[in-house]
Amino acid sequence: MSQLWIPALLVLVGFVGLIWSADKFVAGSAAMARTFGISKLIIGLTIVAFGTSAPEVVVSLNAALRGAGDLAIGNALGSNLANIGLVLGATALIAALPVQNHLLKIELPILLLVTALAGWFLSDANLSTAEGWTLLVLLPCVMGLIIWSKRHHPEEVEDDIPVMSRLASIAWFLIGLTILIISSDLLVRGASQLALAFGVSPLVIGLTVVAVGTSLPELAASVVSALKGHYDIAIGNVIGSNLFNLLAVMAIPGIVAPLDMEPAVFNRDFMAMGGLTLVLALALYISYLTRRNSGGASLGKPLGVLLLVLYAGYYALLLG
């Protein structure tokens, strides 16, 4: 136990670095959106979401190369669970997040369809090379469709965007992204070592410590975005990240080495992730139907609490 101070220090350093870099990363992203004339929502759905998903890619690739298919798939599913239950749940407690109509018409239906396709592929407890390639090929198609649709939806709210030159915004974006990834890696390393020291299984680590740890950039970026009023980045980041996790993070390990996994990965973990995604979608559509004449759909505190409670219930099932 005397050696536990090293992983504990990694966790602390990772956490501090994560908070600092998230602020710079979001500021640079929002400034870039203005200097390049790009919608903040597009930045959230692509650069921010993909950049903060980099830790998931690294972890899943390493797991696939070690033949740890359960950990690789568990990381992708667990990260999506954390993005909806923890990231959106916690962000909604900080500020009510207005949901633009085209998110309900384009991005959310796409996420539901991709989630259903991923479930079909995982239902036989195997992810083949062909299935992995199918998911990966869909990624540019899906993102191209989303970006194309945004050209028909001008920015609805002009938030306070930091005033930076193009060079400065790119510099802060890259610095923030780099430190986000490094900090997340330090935190996951430290937390994983602590978990192993206390006798937690690798599968549970993949679904909990690693999945939550690699979702911390999304949490930090979305919370800071909400606090600064960049609501498009906060919501778009999570939707884009979840799409990226299913179409790339889960696909790449399948391409590297076909994955066999425990039935529980589908029966328990995918079903929990799919169920939470469906709850989010239903709640937002109900909000839209009841509020379309008074401001449109929003993700408020009641839904935030519900997402957090359901997420905690999944952990109780997993660790029980």
Structure write-up:
- It is a single chain.
- With 320 residues, the chain is mostly helical.
- The strands form two sheets. Strands 1-4 form a two-stranded antiparallel sheet.
- The radius of gyration is 19 Å and the shape is globular.
- 81% of the residues lie in helices and 2% in strands.
- The longest helix has 32 residues, at 166-197.
- The two termini are 25 Å apart.
- The protein has helices spanning 5-35, 40-52, 54-65, 69-94, 101-122, 129-150, 166-197, 202-228, 231-249, 251-256, 263-291, 301-319, and strands at residues 97-98, 126-127, 259-260, 298-299.
- It contains twelve helices and four strands.
- Helix 1 packs antiparallel against helix 2 and helix 5 (101-122) packs parallel to helix 9 (231-249).
Concise structural overview:
By secondary structure, the protein is mostly helical. Helix content is 81%, strand content 2%.
DSSP strand content:
under 5%
Strand arrangement within the widest β-sheet reads 1-4
* Radius of gyration over C-alpha positions, nearest whole angstrom: 19 Å
Assembly of the depicted chains = single chain
> What is the percent of helical residues?
over 70%
Model regions low in confidence, pLDDT < 50 over at least 5 residues: 155-159
Task: Please report the total strand number as a whole number.
Answer: 4
Structural class: mainly alpha
Could you give the order of the helices and strands? HHHHEHEHHHHHEHEH
Shape: globular
Q: What's the tally of helices?
A: 12
Task: Give the N-to-C terminal Cα separation.
Answer: 25 Å
Most strands sheet:
2 strands, antiparallel
Mean of residue pLDDT values: 81
